[in-house]
Each structure stands twice: as C-alpha cells, then as structure tokens.
C-alpha cells in the first residue's frame, strides 16, 4: 500500500547525519538534521536530504539517537536515548482442553502472560526476567528452553490447571526496544533536535500502542494543531526532568 502511494524503501544502514542550526529567531541552540548519511548493501555511501527524521529503529534506536547527537554534548544533549536491545522468548504450545477462543491476553501477577493463538488449541506465552542478572545475552537469538520449563510452565499450570498437560510445539527469540529508564513509550520531537521525532521504547505493549503511535507520528510530521490523542506526558522531556511513568506487569 505504501509503495503504491509513492513511498520508497531503501535497504541501507544509517551511519550519520548532517546538521544545521534552526532559524535565527529560534530561542537557544536548537538545530535540525539536514540530511541522512547511509551506506547501502554494496558498501556505497550516499546522502539524503530530509525535512523530518523519525527514529523508529526499534532495539537499535539508542544508536540512531547517538548518531543524531543525543548523549554526546551538554545540556539536554548530554542525555542519551535510554533504549537498548533486550532478548525475549516466545513459546508456542498446545492444550486440547485449555481456555476457549474468547480468552483475552492474560497476564499473571508474576508477569507471565499467555494468549490464544488461532482455533486449534494453540497458545503463545512468555515472561520477562525477574532481575538484571537474569537478562539473557543479546549476542544471539538462541532460545532458553529451561526458562520455559522452570519459570513459565509452573506459573501457567498454577493459573490454569489444564495447562499442566501441554505440549511445547515451537519457540523463538527476538529483541525488545527496551526503555531502561521506565520501560515505557518515548514519543515526540527532541527539544533540541527539533525535526528529530522519537517513537521508541514501547516493547512490552507495542501491540496495543502501535496504531495510536503511528497515527500520532503522522500528525506530528504534518505539524497538526491538534492531536487525536494527547501523548505529551510520554515525550523526552520527562527523562530530562528525571521523571518516570511506571506501571506493573509490562510483558
């Protein structure tokens, strides 16, 4: 759909930005990103002029933020984008007499979650580590099956007795874009890099937030006077002010 509307996708790695000061009437030392410097799959470098830049790089958003200047200078630019990759596991299992198709996404008080997957008695589940010491290495995407057997399965069976007799069918690992500050969304323009829009750190509730975030970013790009949803409390300023938006049981 996007391609049909004229969007061009470029398979390349962002390696830097060029910058220029904002208009003279701008208060302070604000600047904008004037162009993106990229390297394509053949190793050739090229430059793309830009009016707006949206950082939606997922687990690697922190690196893009640093290339743009976050965490490299003084003042507000001394604070990096606190988003890093964290590895999480998803396990798919079958239970012939488990909860029915109307079962919602269910999060146990331990943070273990499950949801129904289709009509064939399949479910998927997962959980986050309980401490920093338990965080798995991000060097590979190998699955830790002991984490399922020792942590997740007992909790599932305690919550849903039918889950005592399940059969693990498959599993995979992926990366969260993990906000180490408060594990919550960061969205909106950077206060100094004024055309640098952030849409980061929502892993754990990305499925719920993605449509709203996409709509909000499109409104920000268009410089809308009003927004469908006010997301201002989730902007980067809260990190500068050292304020947190905390919630329980982010999966």
Automatic annotation (TrEMBL):
SUPFAM superfamilies tied to this protein: FAD/NAD(P)-binding domain
One cellular component term from this protein's GO annotations in UniProt: mitochondrion
GO biological process, one term: mitochondrial respiratory chain complex I assembly
Signal sequence coordinates: none
Presence of the UniProt keyword rRNA-binding in the record: no
InterPro entries found in the cross-reference section: FAD-dep_OxRdtase, FAD/NAD-bd_sf
Domain of life: Eukaryota
Classification via Gene3D superfamilies: D-Amino Acid Oxidase, subunit A, domain 2, FAD/NAD(P)-binding domain
Gene Ontology terms, MF aspect: oxidoreductase activity
FAD dependent oxidoreductase domain mapped to chain residues: 33-220
Alphabetized UniProt keyword annotations: Oxidoreductase
Functional summary from the UniProt entry: Required for the assembly of the mitochondrial membrane respiratory chain NADH dehydrogenase (Complex I). Involved in mid-late stages of complex I assembly.
Protein name listed in UniProt: FAD-dependent oxidoreductase domain-containing protein 1
Organism ancestry: Eukaryota, Metazoa, Spiralia, Lophotrochozoa, Mollusca
């Amino acid at each position: 759909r996007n391609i049909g509307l004229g969007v061009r996708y470029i398979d390349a790695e962002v390696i830097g930005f060029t910058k220029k000061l904002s208009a003279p009437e701008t208060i302070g030392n604000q600047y904008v990103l004037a162009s993106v410097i990229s390297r394509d799959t053949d190793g050739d470098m090229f430059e793309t002029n830009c009016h707006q830049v949206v950082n939606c790089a997922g687990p690697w958003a922190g690196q893009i933020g640093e290339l743009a200047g976050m965490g490299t200078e003084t003042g507000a630019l001394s604070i990096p984008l606190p988003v890093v990759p964290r590895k999480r596991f998803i396990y798919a299992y079958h239970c012939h007499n488990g909860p029915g198709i109307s079962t919602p996404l269910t999060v146990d008080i331990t943070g273990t979650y499950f949801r129904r997957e289709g009509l064939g008695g399949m479910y998927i589940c997962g959980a986050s580590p309980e401490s920093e010491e338990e965080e798995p290495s991000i060097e590979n995407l190998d699955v830790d099956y002991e984490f399922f057997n020792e942590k997740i399965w007992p909790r599932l069976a305690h919550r849903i007795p039918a889950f005592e007799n399940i059969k693990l069918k498959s599993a995979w690992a992926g990366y969260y874009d993990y906000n180490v500050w408060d594990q919550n969304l960061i969205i909106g323009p950077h206060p100094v890099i004024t055309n640098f829009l952030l849409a980061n750190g929502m892993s754990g509730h990305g499925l719920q937030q993605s449509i709203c975030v996409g709509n909000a970013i499109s409104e920000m790009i268009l410089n809308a006077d009003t927004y469908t949803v006010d997301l201002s409390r989730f902007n980067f300023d809260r990190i500068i002010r050292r304020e947190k938006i905390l919630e329980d049981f982010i999966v």
